[in-house]
Specification:
Blueprint (H helix, E strand, L loop, with lengths): L14 H19 L11 E6 L5 H13 L2 E5 L12 H10 L4 E6 L4 H9 L3 E6 L5 H15 L6 E5 L6 H12 L3 E5 L15 E2 L3 H5 L4 E4 L15 H8 L3 H4 L7 E3 L12 H4 L6 H21 L13
Parallel strand pairs: 1-2, 1-3, 3-4, 5-6, 5-8, 6-7, 8-9
Helix pairs in contact: 1-5, 1-11, 2-11, 3-4, 5-6, 5-11
Bound molecules: phosphoric acid mono(formamide)ester.
């Protein structure tokens, strides 16, 4: 059991905490965009530990820390003593005794942020652990849905693609179902988790049925780096059966929003007109993840956002 306050998964968090974080993110967004300072009274030093590639998550945590007046120190396998064989455990204990105030970690192993939280004993944020969870992406995506739809309760959300390897799918499905949305999963059988029944949603056969009346369509990246040979017969076949494009979207709600956490395989998970079209909120997701991460840092480092929450509920 991890000590102290961390954000290692959405599944562990209760709906009130999630709503409070979304309220805080929305409030910080308003303040930041209107030019108000949100700088913390006590600047902290945050370690950004990225053991897998990242553009959005790493840069947005840097941006979030900048807004709050904190400093970051970047850390990866290459260039650190881990490249000389030092273990993750000894690395975390070293950073603890170098008095970092918080750690943000992306790592290919599921559960590694919880191991780090046990050792570090100060706030730890999961920035994506293997196929497990990506909680701050889910918060940024939920903020984007709230802005577009006004509430989350009662929405029909169709998550399309490589469900098996997707930490994004797990985190957003938990978040949305905790706030009362109906979640559907659609994808090739070979890319559906064998324990799909444990996920908070229903597996639907075929893109057309999955999209029927959907308010939110979330495309997932095909994670070829995590796939064993043979899971997908061909990209062309995937494209013909599961690509989200204009023809497919005719089955969804006419005012549906189209999401993708990025990075996209353009022309595979969705076509260019869909990625760049009027229903797409993909770049809003990128921006809102900055505010969501700002909120998570505030919540963990200062205890902000512990008040009554309203986000996600029908208004
Ligand atoms: N969505 C996401 O996690 O993107 P990055 O891998 O670029 O951080």
């Amino acid at each position: 059991m991890t000590k102290g306050k961390h954000l290692t998964s959405i599944r562990r968090e209760d709906p009130e905490t999630i709503r409070a974080l979304l309220d805080l993110a929305a409030s910080l967004k308003t303040q930041i965009l209107s030019g108000k300072s949100v700088t913390a009274k006590q600047p902290k030093v945050i370690g950004l530990l990225f053991f897998e590639g990242s553009t959005r998550t790493r840069v947005s945590f840097e941006r979030a820390a900048f807004y709050l007046g904190h400093r970051v120190t970047n850390f990866s396998n290459a260039g650190s003593s881990m490249s000389k064989g030092e273990t993750l455990r000894d690395t975390i204990l070293t950073l603890k005794h170098e008095l970092l105030d918080a750690i943000v970690i992306r790592h290919p192993s599921c559960g590694s942020p919880e191991l780090v939280a046990d050792l570090f004993e100060r706030p730890v944020i999961n920035a994506g652990d293997g196929e497990h969870e990506h909680p701050t992406q889910a918060l940024g995506d939920a903020l984007t849905i709230l802005e577009a739809k006004g509430s989350i309760e009662g929405l029909t959300v169709c998550i399309v693609g490589d469900i098996m390897h997707s930490r994004v799918a797990r985190s957003i499905a938990w978040l949305l179902s905790k706030l009362g949305a109906n979640v559907r999963f659609v994808g090739p059988r070979t890319l559906m988790p064998s324990n799909c029944s444990l996920l908070p949603g229903v597996a639907v056969e075929g893109l057309q049925d999955g999209l029927a009346g959907a308010d939110v369509v979330m495309c997932l990246r095909l994670q070829r780096e995590r796939m064993e040979q043979g899971l997908l017969s061909s990209i062309g076949e995937y494209r013909s059966q599961y690509q989200v494009n204009r023809a497919a979207l005719k089955h969804a709600h006419p005012e549906c929003i189209v999401m993708h956490p990025g990075p996209m395989n353009r022309g595979v998970e969705l076509d260019d007109p869909t990625a760049d079209g009027p229903n797409s909120v993909i770049l809003k997701q990128v921006e809102n993840c900055v505010y969501a991460r700002t909120a998570v840092l505030e919540w963990l480092l200062t205890g902000a956002g512990q008040k009554t929450a309203t986000a996600g509920a029908k208004r």
